[in-house]
Amino acid sequence: MLEDLLELDRTVLLFFNHFHTLYLDQVMWVYTGKIIWLPLIVMLVYVVFHRNWKEGILAALMIILVVTICDQVASSIFKPLFERLRPTRDPDFSQYVTIVNNYRGGKYGFASSHASNGFGLAIFTALLFKNRFYSFTAVLWALITCYSRMYVGVHYPGDILAGIVIGIITSFVVYKYLYLVLHRYLFTKGIYSEPIPVYSHENGARYVALTIYILFFIILVFAPLFNFRIH
């Protein structure tokens, strides 16, 4: 049974890893990196602090906590516990994987930190903003991030799914059992069963979503002009 699942995992990876062109290699290489998303972080920080700096501090701390938990659970617990080699590191399988820019990642890949961090950030901020346009955009951003990790060959779909589960569970737990509790204690003094969604009736969430789409456009148009080795 386990071997059947592992074989399915390999088959699905090869499907996602199969469609390579020089243009897409450059697009996915830039997309899966970190530098390109700095404007998104800046806009997110601006939005959470713009309306109320005190609530902004709480929101920022919770976002940092979510990403930190997601990253540490995936990297410091799952990877050393399961010790599953990345597709690019498996001597019996790496020959079938298309590798971009000779990037192979670390030794172990289960679970994907990119997937856990991306979905943790996307779901927590979606709960925070309560804006449908932003929620759709954030999940889309996280999904493409997950796909980019399979495209460059460093994660199996199983690694990605595990990371997604970690991100979703972490974001819901932190939001419901920590953020709501602290918000109620600090700002509403227990009057409301849930905090007033201070970001949902403003344009802040839309600004963050639009920033994501602008970065999508920049990557699609200008990725071939970027330094291919910046990551």
Automatic annotation (TrEMBL):
Annotated ranges, domain Phosphatidic acid phosphatase type 2/haloperoxidase: 59-175
CDD domains for the chain: PAP2_like_4
Xref: SMART domains: acidPPc
Keyword NAD on entry: no
Gene3D superfamilies: Phosphatidic acid phosphatase type 2/haloperoxidase
Transmembrane segments: 28-49, 56-78, 108-129, 136-154, 160-186, 207-226
Transmembrane found in the keyword field: yes
Keywords for the protein's UniProt record, in alphabetical order: Membrane, Transmembrane, Transmembrane helix
PANTHER family: AT30094P, SPHINGOSINE-1-PHOSPHATE PHOSPHOHYDROLASE
Name of the featured protein: Phosphatidic acid phosphatase type 2/haloperoxidase domain-containing protein
Record organism: Coprobacter secundus subsp. similis
Lineage per the UniProt record: Bacteria, Pseudomonadati, Bacteroidota, Bacteroidia, Bacteroidales
